[in-house]
């Protein structure tokens, strides 16, 4: 086991985590290269060797994740979080390949191959439950639909993998999302209302089929999509760049075709593509052939799915870099909604909501909240959540270390407005003016 004791082998925890991640991605690369070579015509032994490499890569990633984020110097935590997210995407893709190889070679191996390589502590990503059996792990809405009908016309391995991307209950409700009124209204019109009375929403009133959520990081694009998944009763695919661009398997085009086919088989359905810029950025000469083909396939499928009046498929894209999207992609998202930094009213709402949710409002009155909101211009929603967390820590930091273990949480002093002043010394807005001006330009030219 990878021991994270400080100073062991003279390396900092940051260095050790970084090293493990590097070893993990090198191992993934090795596995992918071998996979490319042996996928089609390799012998069983070669495939087993490939599977072993994927397993080793997953073990390295797991070791890399066995640390507490609080042990990383504060100024490096953002970087490590990003790396961890990337590694978890690698892990997911490695797991998918491992399952496919095991299925191909010997289905009985599949169980051991799918043991999760999940972070043990301080995880940002909700762990996926390991699949006990194919149907047991499927969301209830898919169990209700005939599984075979859903996979009709879709490659079996790809189809299975895509069914894993369906979100059932995210636990997020529209009410949890503060502000974002125009985005909420557009989503309601496109998703919730047509479900109540489909006949009313036909012809010219047909709901829009492509919605692009764009805006500075941390203002609720992903959260809002999760709320739609939680509240709409439609099949909801949560597609990430990694599940579409599994370059190492060379299956991206088939995956996209499969995705739209399943969505069509199970409609009404919603396909949510987060960080869409990472897959559908402007096509250029420099693009690898496989990436160019994938983008084209996406456009073709998108057109097919959204041009037929009978198909009820909505594609929601989210990005914080809309200006990098291909023009052809933009055209397919006629509704483009900016989720901007919160104004003073929205900041008040979010701070109040966050504190109330954790029963921490007692020490603050409305003028305190107004004061905090007036001092946080330029903060994103996620900055504000971080600020509330930091303020909540102030009373804890006042406790003498020797008494910490016997302190009753209920007897802790309430949060005061001055705690937010303290928190403001460390939590600063994360959005730069440069990003804001690019987004404003885009919104002026293309937003609606
Ligand atoms: N409108 C909101 N209401 C409540 N909480 C919010 C809101 N926006 C953001 N948050 C908080 O910030 C976190 C990050 O938000 P989210 O992931 O939706 O941002 P995003 O816009 O998708 O950012 P990115 O562009 O970086 O992907 C959420 O988990 C939530 O805690
Ligand atoms: Mg997001």
From TrEMBL:
One of its GO terms (cellular component) is perinuclear region of cytoplasm. Pfam families: AAA, AAA_lid_3. It is an enzyme of class 5 (isomerase). This is microtubule-severing ATPase. Signal peptide: none annotated. Keywords: ATP-binding, Isomerase, Microtubule, Nucleotide-binding. GO terms for molecular function: ATP binding; ATP hydrolysis activity; identical protein binding; microtubule binding; microtubule severing ATPase activity. The lineage of its organism: Eukaryota, Metazoa, Ecdysozoa, Nematoda, Chromadorea. It catalyses: n ATP + n H2O + a microtubule = n ADP + n phosphate + (n+1) alpha/beta tubulin heterodimers. PROSITE patterns: AAA (PS00674).
């Amino acid at each position: 086991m990878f021991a994270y004791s400080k100073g062991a082998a003279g390396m900092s925890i940051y260095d050790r985590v970084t090293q493990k991640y590097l070893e993990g991605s090198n191992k993934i690369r090795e596995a992918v290269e071998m996979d490319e070579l042996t996928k089609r015509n390799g012998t069983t032994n070669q495939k087993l060797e490939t599977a072993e490499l994927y397993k080793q890569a997953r073990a390295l990633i797991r070791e890399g994740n066995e640390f507490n984020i609080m042990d990383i110097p504060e100024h490096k935590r953002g970087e490590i979080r990003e790396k961890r997210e990337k590694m978890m995407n690698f892990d997911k893709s490695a797991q998918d390949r491992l399952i496919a190889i095991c299925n191909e070679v010997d289905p009985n191996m599949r169980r051991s191959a799918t043991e999760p390589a999940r972070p043990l502590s301080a995880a940002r990503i909700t762990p996926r439950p390991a699949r006990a059996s194919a149907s047991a792990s499927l969301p209830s809405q898919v169990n209700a639909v005939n599984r075979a009908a859903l996979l009709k016309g879709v490659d079996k391995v790809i189809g299975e993998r895509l069914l894993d991307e369906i979100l059932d209950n995210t636990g997020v409700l529209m009410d949890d999302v503060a502000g974002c009124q125009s985005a909420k209204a557009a989503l309601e019109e496109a998703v919730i209302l047509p479900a109540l009375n489909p006949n009313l929403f036909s012809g010219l009133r047909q709901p829009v089929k492509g919605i692009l959520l764009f805006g500075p990081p941390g203002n609720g694009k992903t959260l809002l999509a999760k709320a739609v998944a939680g509240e709409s009763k439609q099949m909801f695919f949560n597609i990430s760049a990694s599940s579409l661009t599994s370059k190492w398997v060379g299956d991206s085009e088939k995956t996209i075709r499969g995705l739209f086919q399943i969505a069509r088989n199970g409609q009404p359905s919603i396909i949510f593509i987060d960080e869409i810029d990472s897959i559908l950025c402007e096509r250029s000469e420099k693009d690898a052939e496989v990436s160019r083909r994938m983008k084209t396939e996406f456009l073709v499928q998108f057109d097919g799915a959204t041009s037929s009046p009978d198909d009820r498929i909505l594609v929601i894209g989210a990005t914080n870099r809309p200006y990098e999207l291909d023009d052809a992609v933009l055209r397919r998202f006629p509704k483009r909604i900016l989720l901007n930094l919160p104004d003073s009213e929205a900041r008040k709402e979010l701070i109040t909501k966050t504190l109330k949710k954790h029963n921490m409002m007692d020490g603050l009155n409305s003028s305190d909240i107004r004061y905090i909101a007036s001092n946080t211009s330029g903060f994103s929603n996620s900055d504000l959540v971080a600020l509330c967390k930091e303020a909540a820590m102030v009373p804890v930091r006042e406790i003498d270390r020797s008494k910490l273990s016997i302190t009753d949480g209920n007897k802790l002093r309430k949060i005061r407005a001055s705690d937010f002043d303290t928190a403001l010394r460390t939590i600063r807005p994360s959005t730069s003016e440069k990003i804001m001006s690019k987004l404003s330009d885009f919104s002026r030219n293309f937003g609606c």
